[in-house]
Design brief:
This protein is of the alpha/beta class. The chain has 2 domains: 163 residues, 3-Layer(aba) Sandwich (Rossmann fold); 73 residues, no CATH class. Helices cover 36% and strands 27% of the residues. The strands form 2 sheets. A 6-stranded mixed sheet has the order 6-7-8-3-9-10, with helices on both faces. Strand 1 and strand 2 form a beta hairpin. Helix 3 packs across helix 5, helix 3 runs parallel beside helix 6 and helix 6 packs parallel to helix 7. The longest helix is centred in the middle third of the chain and has 14 residues. It starts with a strand and ends with a helix. Bound molecules: adenosine-5'-diphosphate. Adenosine-5'-diphosphate binds next to helix 1. GO terms for molecular function: ATP binding. Keywords: ATP-binding, Nucleotide-binding, Transport. InterPro entries: AAA+_ATPase (IPR003593), ABC_AA/LPS_Transport (IPR051120), ABC_transporter-like_ATP-bd (IPR003439), ABC_transptr_urea_ATP-bd_UrtD (IPR017781), BCA_ABC_TP_C (IPR032823), P-loop_NTPase (IPR027417). This is ABC transporter ATP-binding protein.
Length: 244
């Protein structure tokens, strides 16, 4: 286990408001990490900064063995470097089947050589991806008729098709039934065995099930970090987040 992502002294101001304030923390590989914190704490902005959607005013975000500074790379280069992001709302091709969605994602892989030819094991890979996200029985169904939870899983499958080293996931459990939440937990735990998975989540029961290290953000900085029990016992966390 080693640091894959090192955020050092990052700040970002929007119209005079410090959304991210001298933020420093790191994520290992492999690792499952949850980021929690009140609304406006800077969680989404953190993901925007890592993926290059937003540029910081100062600080560095180092990634991988070469310690490349992501703040100097384009969004496309960051994605090619193996960073995938799942937004809260699922974005799948509704008119295509589950299988076609996964196939498209495989073709969009960051290795250009594999895009040119249909790989002989493509259908095996689609079946494997579908199994990893609990969609083996729906391969020939149109994505548009899937439940909200299934669409979220399909999108996770499409991201896994690209074999990210770092997967950023924004509130995966929102709008899910408790059975769907449980399956989502298992999926993320499994995915994080071989990569870094960072999850923003408000649902504390869901975070508890993830059973991972938790980083609490507040006013753009790390307020506390550790196990969920550890951070929940921290009076500062109770004051700004839990005690409301
Ligand atoms: P969280 O995801 O923890 O709820 P955000 O990262 O979305 O927090 O937002 C942090 C703060 O930065 C908020 O006060 C928000 O209004 C502000 N903010 C985020 N993005 C922008 C933007 N593009 N322009 C202006 N203010 C922004």
């Amino acid at each position: 286990m080693s640091a894959l992502l090192e955020v050092s002294g990052v700040s970002k101001t929007f119209d005079g408001f410090k959304a991210i304030n001298n933020l420093s923390f790191s994520v290992n590989e492999p690792e499952l990490r949850a980021i929690i914190g009140p609304n406006g704490a800077g969680k989404t902005t953190f993901m925007d900064l890592v993926t290059g959607k937003t540029r910081p005013d100062s600080g560095e975000i180092r990634y991988g063995e070469l310690s490349r500074d992501l703040t100097k790379l384009s969004e496309a280069r960051i994605a090619q470097a193996g960073i995938g992001r799942k937004f809260q709302k699922p974005t799948v091709f509704e008119d295509q089947t589950v299988s076609e969605n996964l196939t498209m994602a495989l073709k969009a892989t960051r290795n250009p050589v594999t895009v040119l030819t249909k790989r002989p094991d493509e259908s095996d890979r689609v079946a494997d991806l579908a199994a990893r996200v609990g969609l083996s029985d729906t391969l020939e169904q149109r994505a548009g008729i899937l439940s909200h939870g299934q669409k979220q899983w399909l999108e996770i499958g499409m991201l896994l098709a690209q074999e990210p080293r770092l997967l950023l996931v924004d509130e995966p459990a929102a709008g899910m039934t408790s059975a769907e939440r449980e399956r989502t937990t298992a999926m993320l735990v499994e995915a994080a065995k071989t990569r870094a998975v960072v999850v923003i989540e408000h649902d504390m029961e869901f975070v508890r099930r993830l059973n991972c290290r938790v980083t609490v953000l507040h006013e753009g900085s790390v307020l506390a970090e550790g196990s969920l029990d550890h951070v929940c016992a921290d009076p500062r966390v109770i004051d700004v987040y839990l005690g409301r």
